Amino acid sequence: MRFLIAGFGSIGRRHLRNLLALGELDVLLYRTRQSTLPEDEIAGIPVETDLDAALRRHPDAVIVANPTALHLPTALSAARAGCHLLIEKPVSNALEGIDELQASLEKNHVQALAGFQFRFHPGLRQAESWLRDGAIGRPLSARAHWGEYLPNWHPWEDYRRSYSARGDLGGGVVLTLSHPLDYLRWLLGEVDGVMAMTGRLGDLELTVEDTAEIGLHFASGCLGSLHLDYNQQPPTHRLEIIGTQGTLRWDNADGAARLYRASAQVWEICPPPEGFERNTLFLDELRHFREVIRGAAQSVCTLADGERALHLALAIHEAAQSGRTVQL
């Protein structure tokens, strides 16, 4: 298969390295040369600075890894050219154009995978299995927390110029750290109400929000809360779900899922497989994407899933601005 990577920032570079590691050597790049990364490792790889020219090379699949605000125009052009899509999260910073993209996918018989790689985390997959089996009874409440100091993400560049820090490129902590919006609805079902407070509270000199406190009401009746920030040191990313018959916990620090069954009054610990590390998520995501392209698997995170996570993110912004609960 021929893969086109649109964007050569940090995530584009990761996908390039992983494709090569998986033996996918027919790779080309579409880039605008705005990246601050060194170019040594892309020597010998075909590069186009015009998207139409890149698509005329007939890639089978396009990995959309440019800034958030540019995702949809790139994905639409690729879908019209008959390419399968892996669209990095969030799928956009606005809902306009997603219906058109879905129609184009269906018309051209191509598939899409939204790039929420935490769907492939073994700890969260174990949590999903426990919830499906009723291990903690009926979920009553959930708390997710993700704080990570933005300047440490890409130390080779000025973080204030990165897409994560720029509203015009779809930045801000709610959109950029939107993974929990996906995995919470994957684990607990749809959200039908949102409350939120957001602000620029740190010393990062940003024009977008760096902190968010979010309240979620799930259609099942479960209550949820989510904290996101660009300020926390050391980074913290964890989840706790309380049910009628126990408690479930996951911590990204060690990757383990933990289950407390009230009937047994003991914690069960399920660590990730030996050798697991962060990049394993992206490798497993690409392996799955190849299976989707070949028709051997259904996308575990569809464009519709990506749209729902985006809808949640936009509802959070609306709730924070209005001071009211937003019904979905």
Summarize this, please?
The chain is of the alpha/beta class and 328 residues long. It folds into 2 domains: 3-110, NAD(P)-binding Rossmann-like Domain (Rossmann fold, 3-Layer(aba) Sandwich); 118-275 and 301-327, Dihydrodipicolinate Reductase, domain 2 (2-Layer Sandwich).
Distance between the termini: 40 Å
**Assembly status:** single chain
When the domains are counted, the total is 2
Largest sheet: 9 strands, mixed
The number of E-state strands comes to 15
Architecture of the largest domain, CATH level 2? Answer: 2-Layer Sandwich
Percentage of residues in strands? 25-35%
Enter the CATH topology name of the largest domain. Dihydrodipicolinate Reductase, domain 2
Strand order, sheet with most strands: 14-13-12-11-7-10-9-8-15
Q: Which residues sit in consecutive blocks of at least 5 with pLDDT less than 50?
A: none
Mean pLDDT: 97
Q: In CATH, what is the homologous superfamily of the largest domain? A: Dihydrodipicolinate Reductase, domain 2
Globally, the shape reads globular
Query: Helix count?
Result: 9
Task: Describe the protein.
By secondary structure, this protein is an alpha/beta fold. It has 2 domains: 3-110, Rossmann fold (3-Layer(aba) Sandwich); 118-275 and 301-327, Dihydrodipicolinate Reductase, domain 2 (2-Layer Sandwich). Helices cover 30% and strands 25% of the residues. The protein has helices at 10-21, 51-55, 71-80, 98-108, 122-132, 173-176, 179-188, 278-294, 303-322, and strands at 3-6, 27-30, 47-48, 61-64, 84-88, 112-115, 139-147, 191-199, 211-218, 223-229, 236-243, 246-251, 257-261, 266-270, 326-327. It has a 9-stranded mixed sheet with strand order 14-13-12-11-7-10-9-8-15. Strand 11 and strand 12 form a beta hairpin. The protein is globular, with a radius of gyration of 20 Å. The chain starts with a strand and ends with a strand. The model has no long low-confidence stretch (mean pLDDT 97).
